[in-house]
Amino acid sequence: MTVTQAPLKRRPRPEGGRPPPPVWPGGGSASPSRPGWRWLAQVALVVRFEKGEELYGDDSRADAMFAIITGMVKIHKVLPDGKRPILAFLFAGDLLGVTDQTTHAVAASAGSAVTAYRYPSVLLERSLHQDAFLEFNLLIRQTLCREVREAREHALILRRLDAAGRLAGFLSRLLARAQGMGEGDWDLYLPMDRSDIAAYIGTSPEAVSRAFRRLADDGVVRFRDRRHVRITNPDGLAALAAGKTPR
Amino acid sequence: MTVTQAPLKRRPRPEGGRPPPPVWPGGGSASPSRPGWRWLAQVALVVRFEKGEELYGDDSRADAMFAIITGMVKIHKVLPDGKRPILAFLFAGDLLGVTDQTTHAVAASAGSAVTAYRYPSVLLERSLHQDAFLEFNLLIRQTLCREVREAREHALILRRLDAAGRLAGFLSRLLARAQGMGEGDWDLYLPMDRSDIAAYIGTSPEAVSRAFRRLADDGVVRFRDRRHVRITNPDGLAALAAGKTPR
DNA sequence: CGGAGGCTTGAATCCTCTCAATGTGCGTGG
DNA sequence: CCACGCACATTGAGAGGATTCAAGCCTCCG
């Protein structure tokens, strides 16, 4: 982790990254036009992580939370056999590290180069008063509710047994998120590689490859290159995602 | 839903149910000895649901939250094909219906006869002041954090491909919960039937049956009857649950 | 231009799912 | 008190899809 700078009077404007679009930390994908958590900036440090670096580890002390400015973060667990199943992908604008325990139950690592605000809990507790406290609680609640929703959608994806269906569900969520943020219509950038997708939808990279091929053969998607996919048949994707072949 | 009574000056003491033990609504399995949310009782109605009745439906208005006094509640989603995958089981002491949206994203229905406190959001908003508001936020945060943790554990269970492993994971969580509440050591009561378990671990009732048989044959568990199981080899169960055959 | 890593494809094996039928337990009614 | 019936639970057989191991291909970067 690299501490790039301490915030001065104003939040610095992040330079526009290309694939993952920068967004103000607001805790939600739906509302970049939040009242603004200016008070949060008082205790924020801007930090940078290289791809693969850990923001925090499994069972590490929960001494800070983060707001992603640019980049992609993977939430994962480390299993006794060395597997690292991915439980969530987080992007610009997302908050992570929120808990009510003294230790994180999962690990977070940078899926790409990541810049983020870091909010040490100690400083947060000290600096929160009155209105700020109220807004903070609102923010936390929104963040946690979103985490619950996303975890449940993830569970619904994982229930499916056919890899194509799971992949379709995954793409649907990525698409919904991108469109919710005013992104380009049907063009999707995949910030993660095949094995990350596999670790998220609970299958092997080979199965992901085959599922992509199937979707492409069915005319549901079309690849520009390995990381850029265009949804050519949204209804077909939705049908697959909705559970044509659920368990 | 049946409104049994409006709370008077004190929270009524629920008569001791046998299989599912009654617990004060405290929002967590770990802390029945919470400071007590006495102020919550001001707006609470005690309601009763028969087995199968819905506490709230998919996409219904989020106009109240509940605290379970006795019984078991299933959180599920209704899929277009009629399937009703179960996302969570909730028991005495659990809070449900917490959200930051105007509508629930999932449905909740009684898995057994259920008595619960019902807290209409309108009344909650009106009656929360100062200290109560602070405690309320704490309660909400704890509840949501727990939901996130449980949803993630659920996802980890769903990742596994062998039915025995998934069932072991499910039993482990049930056991941890029971023991966390000071329950009998290694005897487990299953408040749900086989198809509910199947709907939760993402498989068919037949597979659940076969997985149970396998666990029994391996000497990991032993059935007294269909609903009472004794963990005869906790280490073996943990080994299976931890991922002997993960994906 | 060369190498390394990621991605894709191929073939054999295993497991689960589905469809059916049988067995068990509980509640009801006679 | 006993017998019946319904719902749940278990068991069986066949087919389909996924996982695994292994090898070849492509792309990107140095």
CATH class of the largest domain in chain A: Mainly Beta
Strand segment tally of chain A: 12
**Any low-confidence stretches of chain A, pLDDT <50, length ≥5?**
6-35
Helix content of chain A: 25-40%
The CA-CA distance between the termini of chain A, in Å, is: 43 Å
| Largest β sheet strand count, sense and barrel closure of chain A | 5 strands, antiparallel
Largest interface: A-B, 36 and 36 residues
For the biggest β-sheet of chain A, the strand order reads 1-2-9-4-7
Give me the strand/helix succession of chain A. Answer: EEEEEEEEEHHHEHHEEH
Broad structural category of chain A = alpha+beta
Number of helices of chain A: 6
Descriptors:
homodimer, about 250 residues, alpha+beta, Jelly Rolls, Arc Repressor Mutant, subunit A, 2 domains, five-stranded antiparallel β-sheet, four-stranded antiparallel β-sheet, 6 helices, about 20% strand, elongated, DNA-binding
